[in-house]
Amino acid sequence: MEKLRVGVVGCGRISNTYRAALKQLEDEVDVVWAVDKVLARAQAFAASFPGCRAADTLEPMLADPPQAVHILTPHHLHKQQAIACLRAGAHVLTEKPVALHLSDAREMAQEARRCGRWLAVVSQNRYIPGIVHARKLIQEGRLGALRGAWSQLTWWRPPSYYECDWKGSWETEGGGVVIDQAIHSIDLVRWLMDSPVKAVQGHIARRILTNIEVEDEADAAIEFENGAVYAFFACNYYTHNSPIRLEIDGEKGSVLLEGETVTVSLKGEKPYRILPCDDVLEGESYWGNNHLAQIREFYQSIREDRQPPVPTEEAAATLETVLALYRSARLGARQTLPLRD
Ligand SMILES: NC(=O)c1ccc[n+]([C@@H]2O[C@H](COP(=O)([O-])OP(=O)(O)OC[C@H]3O[C@@H](n4cnc5c(N)ncnc54)[C@H](O)[C@@H]3O)[C@@H](O)[C@H]2O)c1
57, 143, 185, 241: which could join 250 in a potential S-S bond, CB 3.0 to 4.6 Å? Predict the structure, then answer.
């Protein structure tokens, strides 16, 4: 198998997870470029891969583009950097959120089509084994009609987390705990529910982390077209990163995710658990550590010339729910979807 030449743009916190994943995929890929506006970070990343070059701007890489690029930069840069890489001929897997605005996500998708390249967005928790199983059960109708869902994220981000040039700002991060951390819960519930979001009523607050302009707490009632209502809560000021919890409830049973373990309770059957795989990457542990699975499928899809998960349109639907929550909080009113930009 010919190896894919890949590049990484943004060598900050999450790049440690990518370094570990790409090391495990060394039989499939050559990491040939590392880019970060702080050259020392690009050089440190490049040092892990023989022959990998480092740069502090995109230009040198775009002049000799890899076949695939991972974008791991601040949220407000995803659109412009993804489009630049697509135009140079690379397939792109960008970190979440796809972008800060729905019009940006649409432009990115259009540009991918125009350039004949694949564009996909990271949502690694869709690869948690219990979530894969839950989705299958739901699609087979084993939970019956879905009636509701809830999710709770009680995490800890110290004030120092926000002492950088983009986190904690509406313009560059695009929001706080909802768009950055709890977007994963919203994406999972949306994906499992498999029904469009109809309306969102939400509140946001900045209660404890007073050095930021965005929210450190949010709650919402999210209504789906299938009639189910999703109760959402998230905060970034708890004592530690408590395991994520979310549940989908149907007429014939429910699935409950705690951390990366899923408990399935079907009416009349003994409940059972699906444990996370033990293929855990080194480095900082995010919920969850399933990047390796998604990155592997990204490469596989490129080889098979098919759309890699998660397509831009899907990621944009999750972004739309996040933006509806923010708009509802700002206006103090229920927002129906589709949102107008
Ligand atoms: N999927 C997940 O679970 C997960 C977890 C953490 C972060 N992320 C995402 O990864 C992305 C990066 O987050 P992070 O926590 O690593 O942030 P970070 O601030 O630690 O790293 C961002 C890096 O981008 C670099 N950068 C900034 N502007 C640049 C530019 N113009 N060109 C090249 N490099 C530039 C910075 O110097 C920094 O090294 C975000 O989209 C974030 O939401 C995803």
Answer: 143
